[in-house]
Design brief:
Elements: E1 5-11, E2 44-48, E3 63-65, E4 85-89, E5 93-97, E6 103-107, E7 113-117, E8 148-155, E9 161-164, H1 171-178, E10 196-201, E11 207-212, H2 227-231, E12 239-245, H3 254-268, H4 270-273, E13 277-282, H5 304-312, E14 318-321, H6 330-342, H7 357-360, E15 369-372, E16 379-383, H8 385-392, H9 399-411, H10 414-420, E17 428-431, E18 434-437
Parallel strand pairs: 1-3, 2-4, 9-11, 9-12, 12-13, 13-14, 16-17
Antiparallel strand pairs: 1-8, 2-7, 5-6, 5-8, 10-11, 15-16, 17-18
Length: about 450
């Protein structure tokens, strides 16, 4: 099965923790602080790889992580930065937030590389907190936490022209004759199981990219057959070529086929059915005229190409009789399509970013919970994973360390939250096993 969708979890690297240490040298009684900074965590980066055409690399693996930054060390040693996570995808891959479907990035056009999640910032070592009045700080800053996101990858093939139609009408043969593509061709349904791209070069030096979209069936817009797997690949095409079997070699009516395909496009997305269209009446070399000049139902036989022109000409849809096998009519078809493209915008459709991870994911602010004790109105609780970690990095037995921790609570909005709950001077604040009296 063609892999054009995947759901994965990506995680950036955690920032390394700052280090607490002091110079220890012979004949130096009280060395100053020399704790180094932690390294930055690795970013999550998506990069377009022109050698890829599917998302198969993401179908059998669920989670991808950048590496964490190393903690700082003694003697002002800076921790090593974590390695970025580089995820390679085909051009045309749309990255969405799994929960809502909002677009995070569209790896199309000039967007060849994009950072999706930034790694955590490394924490400062205690050497940064030395002042004239506090020459021996016994605390350091913890590294910023890693960030995790569940995303959906969706490949939308980038092509100027899409060849659409029912199975076995000759789309692959047509693409192989007008371009450099070499698709597998055989006389049975669903030979093509993934979109094939080919570059059509014209004598005047112009050209375009054409895509053979695998054969659709009725109900494709509701997911029948392989419908949903491939309808999305028509989205970026500027012109659609309806390829129909004009000879009805399998008993299909070419006029009805065009209408049915259009119905499937409109049911999936109305914008698809409104794209400029051309009809390629294929297999004209196999058209046979009944000896009695009548159809099996007794009605007068009419050349199917004439029927197509009579039906769709008034709708401004050109019909070209062709034979993908012999090459008859192909030159007129591709030059007409090229003239249509020249009248349309050259820019590839690119989806605008709707979700910005840096604005939604926790950054420098603490995640915490505050509540008033149910039994004691003068007792307030504060808990949270980062608070617990900060307690482990701060020497609260020293006056300066405790003052630093109070400022930390203030800067991150915890004291303000307590005031909303009605805390007053003299009330007790409990942070896990730590108790202290609140004074504004």
């Amino acid at each position: 099965m063609f892999a054009d969708r995947a759901k994965i979890i990506v995680r950036s690297g955690k920032g390394g923790d700052g280090h607490v240490s002091f110079r220890r040298e012979k004949f130096v009684a009280s060395g100053g602080p020399d704790g180094g900074d932690g390294g930055k965590g690795g970013d999550v980066v998506f990069v377009v790889d022109d050698g890829l055409n599917t998302l198969i690399d993401y179908r059998h693996r669920r989670k991808f992580s950048a590496t964490d930054g190393e903690p700082g060390g003694k003697k002002r040693c800076h921790g090593a930065d974590g390695q970025d996570l580089i995820l390679r995808v085909p051009a045309g891959t749309v990255i969405r937030l799994a929960e809502t479907g909002e677009v995070i990035a569209d790896m199309s056009g000039e967007n060849r590389r994009q950072v999706i999640l930034k790694g955590g910032r490394g924490g400062n070592g205690n050497m940064h907190y030395a002042t004239s009045t506090m020459q021996a700080p016994e605390y350091a800053q913890p590294g910023q936490e890693a960030r995790e996101l569940e995303i959906k990858l969706e490949l939308k093939t980038i092509a100027d022209v899409g060849l659409i139609g029912y199975p076995n009408v000759g789309k692959s043969t047509l693409l192989s004759h007008i371009s450099n593509a070499k698709p597998k061709i055989a006389n049975y349904h669903f030979t093509t199981l993934n979109p094939e791209l080919g570059v059509v070069d014209l004598e005047d030096g112009s050209g375009f990219v054409a895509a053979d979209i695998p054969g659709l069936i009725e109900g494709a817009s509701q997911g029948a057959g392989l419908g949903h797997e491939f309808l999305r690949h028509i989205d970026r095409c500027k012109v659609l070529i309806h390829v129909v079997d004009a000879a009805s070699t399998e008993g299909r009516d070419p006029v009805e086929d065009v209408y049915r395909i259009d119905q499937e496009l409109a049911a999936y997305d109305v914008a698809l059915s409104e794209k400029p269209q051309v009809i390629a009446a294929n297999k004209i070399d196999s058209i046979t005229i009944p000896e009695d000049g009548k159809n099996p139902d007794g009605t007068a036989w009419e050349n199917p190409v004439s029927r197509l022109k009579r039906e769709f000409g008034p709708k401004d849809i050109a019909v070209f009789p062709i034979s993908a096998v012999t090459g008859e009519g192909l030159k007129d078809l591709i030059y007409y399509v090229s003239s249509m493209l020249r009248k349309l915008p050259k820019e590839t459709k690119v989806y605008e970013q709707e979700y910005f991870p840096e604005e939604h994911l926790p950054g420098n602010k603490l995640s915490f919970t505050c509540w008033k004790d149910a039994k004691d109105p003068h007792l307030f609780h504060v808990e949270g994973p980062k608070i617990d970690k900060m307690l482990g990095y701060t020497n609260l037995e020293s006056e300066k360390g405790f003052r630093f921790f109070q400022n930390f609570l203030k800067d991150n909005g915890i004291l303000k939250e307590l005031e909303k709950l009605g805390i007053e001077d003299g009330d007790t604040v409990k942070l896990y096993e730590l108790h202290f009296e609140y004074y504004k």
